[in-house]
Give the backbone structure.
Amino acid sequence: MMETWILAAEEGAEASSGLDLLLPATPELVGGIIAFGIVFFFIWKWAGPAINRSLEQRQQAIAGRLEEAEKAKAEAESLLADYRQQMAEARQRASEIIDEARQAAEQLRDEILAKANEEAAQIVAKARDEAAAERQRVLAEAREEVANLSLDLAERVIGEALDREAQLGLVQRYLAELER
Amino acid sequence: MIFTRLIAAPLAVEECDYVNQPVCAPENVAELFVLPPIFGQVNRTIILMFLAALIVVAVLYVAYRRPRLVPTKFQAAVDALVSFVRDDVAVGIIGPEGAKYFPYLLSLFMFILVGNLFEITPLVNFPITSRMAIPFFLSLLTWFIFVGVGVRKHGISYFTHLAWPPGVPTALKPLVGIIELVSTLLVRPFSLAVRLFANLVAGHVMLSLLLVTGVVFVANIGEIGVKGAAGVLWFALGVGIFVFEILVTVLQAYIFTLLSAVYIESSIHVEH
């Protein structure tokens, strides 16, 4: 079997030269030129411009979209900055309000304290005055009582009525001298 | 046997002794590539060339018929390829002027890519770029374009710059000039064509050999016994190469396009 193969190969080598392999065959050359011509003509006239249009449109679209995205990003950033500023302002405002409230509270407390102190002092003073007046009154009452008692005592001892008006004056004079 | 006959069918051998020959062995490796005409002078290769053109046109038409701002998955995939050629190859290599050459470079890339991918497309399995016609014509076209651009931009001084390069010591100028002339005007188109052609020929030969050998070994396991099991190994290796060829086909399409752009750029900016 192998022999027939080798024989066939040898015969073939004699029959057709390798040049058939290396040189372009005329019908194939013509066919190839026409086929390539069809491809080139189609691409030159139709596909090339269509491709350029399509790719450029897409490039523009992508560039446009990038630009939009860039714009949106810038907008978002400025918004964020605004919000941050507003937040900072609000925070400052809040702390101001708290400070004010604290000050007001302190002031109020001081005022109330001062008023309370004053009132307390007034009450004390009044109480002291009243106490003094009471003492005076009690003292006066006691003095009168003492005078009356002494007169009553004296009348018992003597056994007769005395000139009450004159005697009272005497006793009271005496008491006043004692106090002195 | 019917299976081997199916595999062997594209090899297009007219007389085949299926009893003694498990596969219709091609007489010459050229038979893997030189396909017989189907009608007139049109063979399978030529039909595949038009199929490739049709696929390129259809893909671009579907993708850009109604381009949407938010692309469909298909459009996004085509966009990735197309904008790669436009932004990285045409404008990236040549500069702002490169936009002018974008249709040509895209045509090159798409046509070669589809032509190459036929190598690993099931039921097609034949890279049209493994026939010299397409690499030859396209590299010649690139040659005409970059020489034409050089002449239009710099007039006759395009050639004198090559032959008598500035910035080279005078004693070396004749030598460098000859090297430059030969490499720019002869080697460039030649290597451009042969690189593409040879890569695809090698890939097709490897895939055909490994996959067909694997199938033949296994299919004839009754005749050759345990040895037939080696066919599994061949087939597995073929599948490995198959995956590798995906890379090669895409890479070769890219390289051809990239080098065309580089050559055009070097004609626009001659002073280096």
In short: Residues 1-14 of chain B have pLDDT under 50 and may be disordered. Chain B touches chain A through 52 residues (CB under 8 Å).
